Amino acid sequence: MLKHVQVGEWIFEVKVVRALKVSEYGKPYSAIANCNINGDTMYIDGLMTKNEQVFTKSDFKVFNEFCHKMGLKQCSYHRYQNGESITKDVIVISTNEPTLQNE
Q1: Are 67 and 76 spatial neighbours (Cβ–Cβ below 8 Å)?
Q2: Residue 2 lies in a domain
Q3: DSSP string covering 15-52, please?
Q4: Model confidence over 79-96: pLDDT tens digits?
Q5: Is the dihedral of CA 53, 45, 77, 97 positive or negative?
Q6: Confidence class of residue 102 from pLDDT cuts 50, 70 and 90?
Q7: Which long-range contacts (CB under 8 A, 24 or more apart) does 60-65 make?
Q8: Longest CA span, the chain
Q9: pTM above 0.85?
């Protein structure tokens, strides 16, 4: 997946992504995340799930795979767990087994 596309004299960079957890586009979604890409790192911000559903390991692997396809090397995400603000930095690897840098 390319992070940029050239059209004429303009280059368009993919810098912001909105991720929706849903089986089909246009249907109601159960989770949403805003993702900002800077260089080789994606920061997941505003990660919210419907009815306080858990962001699962399987969900996390999907984000890792997306980052890998975009050629990114690191992903950071922030969310509240049990009323506590948590930020995690993750090294993106191709085996779908992301490695946490800090826990």
Answers
A1: no
A2: no
A3: -EEEEEE-SSTTS--SEEEEEEEETTEEEEEEEEEGGG
A4: 777 788 888 899 998 864
A5: positive
A6: low
A7: 60/98, 61/96, 61/98, 63/19, 63/33, 64/90, 64/92, 64/93, 64/96, 64/98, 65/96
A8: 50
A9: no
| CA pair distance 3, 1, nearest whole angstrom | 7
Question: Are residues 62 and 47 in contact, defined by beta-carbon separation less than 8 angstroms?
Answer: no
Structure tokens at 78: 């922030």
Asked if 44 and 30 touch (Cβ cutoff 8 Å), the reply is: no
- Whether 3 is covered by a domain: the verdict is no
Mean pLDDT over the full length of the chain? 86
Q: How long is the chain? A: 103
Q: Which two tokens stand for residue 13?
A: 């960079």
Q: Is residue 89 part of a domain?
A: yes
Total domain count, the chain:
1
Structure tokens given for 11: 């280059």
Q: Identify the domain containing residue 86 by its residue range.
A: 14-100
Joined together, the tokens standing for residue 18 give 């909105």
pLDDT at 56: 85
